[in-house]
Amino acid sequence: MSFRLWSLLLLGLSLLTLAQSGPPLRTLAEKHGLQVGAAVEPNLLLQDPEYAQVLAREFNLVVAENVMKWGALQTTRGQFNFAPADLLVEFAQKNHMAVRGHTLVWHQQLPRWVYGDFTPAEMEAILREHIQTVVGHFRGKIAYWDVANEVIGDDAELRPTPFEVLPDYLEKAFRYAHAADPGAKLFYNDYGAEGLGPKSDAIYALLKSLKDKGVPLDGVGFQAHLDLNFSPTAARMAENLERFAKLGLEIHITEMDVRLSGPGSKAERLQKQAQIYQEVLQVCLRQPRCKVFTLWGVSDAYSWRAASEPLIFDADYQPKPAYFALQRTLQQP
Ligand code: GLA
């Protein structure tokens, strides 16, 4: 078959898929003033044309799944590798998508050298240089930065981290990021805080204290890595979001996925998964300060929890019940 015929056939097939699956999520979300995002591995944009196609069709925001983490950007001290992250930003710009930067201060995926024996002054220089260089590199191109990720542990206390040798490292990180790109909105991001409870209380107290000190903090991200037992109920989640909204913070759902594992037939579990996606989206849509709804990946094939099929497209890019549940929800006025 000639290349031309082949392209026509591919185009026909994509139009057919579109016709079958209805309007893309991003088109529907725009009517609500909502951005729908997905976490992306830039190498897949090069390797898998269908991945790039579905991503650009359905989403209007991307977040780097890994390539903007400290370990990826500054594996060796003083040497920055921006190539994969730049590729992602270019793709986003070409497809009119916003970009979320993820993440500047996190206790994981750090390069080994950060665990060295540093004085507070040395750590301050390390943190400042990393944030200035990274945020400065993308200045004007990144709408939101997850400045801090998972700073509060499951015990509701501050987590141990190599940065803690520097007093006020968190506050400083936000200030450095703001200085490097005053146009980017700066976020605190965490998991297991969707509902009310000790961890979410601790995050609330921390963010309130940062706001009280005048730290440039714009919003809070709730990761929403969930499973079929999703507890907080939607009502408790709405109540939780509301108290953060009252602090003046913008609210984002930043990493949603829902593990399919559990009892029951596959069809039942797919329905339950769809219902959980729908509930979280509804909570977001009903909260005026909730502006972003992001999934931690595009298709089950490449998910960090691939075995539990947590996303809205299956490994063959077929939309799952969860996709249609989001679409129906966004179709409501
Ligand atoms: C956390 C991080 C993400 C990602 C997931 C697991 O949620 O914020 O960057 O690493 O864990 O992949």
From TrEMBL:
Enzyme Commission designation: 3.2.1.8
Protein name: Beta-xylanase
N-terminal signal peptide: none
Enzyme class: hydrolase
Keyword Signal: yes
Family, similarity comment: Belongs to the glycosyl hydrolase 10 (cellulase F) family.
GO terms of molecular function: endo-1,4-beta-xylanase activity
Catalytic reaction(s) noted: Endohydrolysis of (1->4)-beta-D-xylosidic linkages in xylans
Keywords: Carbohydrate metabolism, Glycosidase, Hydrolase, Polysaccharide degradation, Signal, Xylan degradation
GO biological processes: xylan catabolic process
InterPro entries, per database record: GH, GH10, GH10_dom
Domain (GH10) ranges: 19-329
